[in-house]
Amino acid sequence: MSKEYGTKTRLLRIMKALIEQPGFYTKRKLASLYDVSIDTISHDFNALNNAGFLLEFDEKHRYSFVQEKPFRQLQDLLHFSEEDQLLLYQAMELIPSSDNRRIRLKQKLAALYDFRKLGFTYLSRPHLNKIDQLLLAKNNKKQVILRDYHSSHSNNIQDRQVEAFHIQAADNTFQAWDLDKKEIRHFKISRVSSMEVTEKDWEFENHHQLLTTDPFRIADPNQVEVHLSMEIGAKNSLIEQYPLSTPFIKATSSSNSFEFKCMMNHRFIGIDRFILAHHKHILKIHAPQSLLQHMNKLVSEFPSF
């Protein structure tokens, strides 16, 4: 390969290579790829480290960026949750199919989404410190105390001691083993006042099993299938408020009628509030029977005004 790369261009290409294939390139491979000496690559790595892009290597001296050190400059640009991505795709569908810009925009969004999956800490949220504390606890397998957790389910504020094993910073959520409840719980980062990493090691790692979440972002190993019929008003609100529900909504043969069929948490958290808020546009609750009983119980508990 001819020496066509200046220092700046080579640094950018090295960054791109390490991002696209972390843990693949050694200094020797990069030197061969860009037709420079290994010492030159070492100088390039020093420049990246000095700029805040820290590197690490495995036992075979294959390099990657340190995942726990966030890329502050990039993450404000690359923060797309699944809901954001879905909404953007829907907006792109409004561009005429004959317009090449639609294809280019989708390709760019796909590229950003793939980069987001690499595992770097997300920094587009003001609670960066809480995310970093969670990552610290997870990586060191330490228990963490959630100070003043605001729980919507129990309707109280209290400390929770947990073992956080799955963190989705972009979605403001994490899954953890709750030491008091003795089960896996799904938490929202924004509902925690502060995090305190303890010196206590994980004790229940054998129970750390990732739970599937429903479109309302509720994790539950005992999901049940919910089947509703609704008018367009409820359909629109469901998609706008909970974009992940979109694939589960189908038009029926009747005008202004749509069906929603999806696996949901068995306690119906989220879907019950949605039904109450849009009851005028809910045509029928087909299944399960336990959802009908749950809704009737909620209505019977309404206070008199």
What does this 3D model show about the protein?
With 305 residues, the protein is α+β, with helices and mostly antiparallel strands. The protein folds into 4 domains: 59 residues, Winged helix-like DNA-binding domain superfamily/Winged helix DNA-binding domain (Arc Repressor Mutant, subunit A); 43 residues; 80 residues, Ribosome maturation factor RimP, C-terminal domain (SH3 type barrels, Roll), CATH 2.30.30.180; 77 residues, Alpha-Beta Plaits (2-Layer Sandwich), CATH 3.30.70. The strands form 3 sheets. It has a 5-stranded antiparallel beta sheet, covered by helices on one side. It has a 4-stranded antiparallel beta sheet with strand order 9-10-8-11. The protein is flat. The termini are far apart. The relative contact order is 0.08. The N terminus is likely disordered.
- Low-pLDDT segments: 1-5, 68-78, 113-126
* Percent range of helical residues: 25-40%
Structural class determined from secondary elements: alpha+beta
- What characterizes the major β-sheet? 5 strands, antiparallel
Number of spatially distinct domains: 4
Query: What series of H and E elements makes up the topology?
Result: HHHEEHHHHEEEEEEHEEHEH
Q: State the CATH class of the largest domain.
A: Mainly Beta
Distance between the termini: 80 Å
Number of strands: 11
The fourth-level CATH homologous superfamily of the largest domain is Ribosome maturation factor RimP, C-terminal domain
Round the Cα radius of gyration to an integer and report it: 24 Å
Which term fits the overall shape? flat
Task: Kindly identify the CATH topology of the largest domain.
Answer: SH3 type barrels
Strand content: 15-25%
